[in-house]
Specification:
The chain has three helices and no strands. It is mainly alpha-helical. It has one domain (2-65). The two termini are 20 Å apart.
Length: 67
């Protein structure tokens, strides 16, 4: 899934910039972050049900902002 997101991001950036772009994917995960209410609140999660959507969004934004 992360590879697919990065591929789409790369294609859109290449289209926008009109040149080849290289994106690297670096993902870091804190241990037990999904079970820690303080970490969930710090990351902006309202409930544990939404953690997947926010995580994917953070990865995509991280990929786009890293270049």
């Amino acid at each position: 899934m992360i590879k697919d997101v990065a591929s789409v991001a790369r294609e859109k950036l290449e289209e926008f910039l009109q040149e080849k772009v290289f994106l690297s994917r670096d993902v870091q995960v804190e241990k037990n972050w999904r079970k820690d209410e303080k970490k969930l609140k710090a990351y902006g999660y309202v409930s544990q049900v939404n953690y997947i959507r926010l995580y994917v969004l953070q990865v995509v934004l991280g990929l786009l902002c890293s270049y």
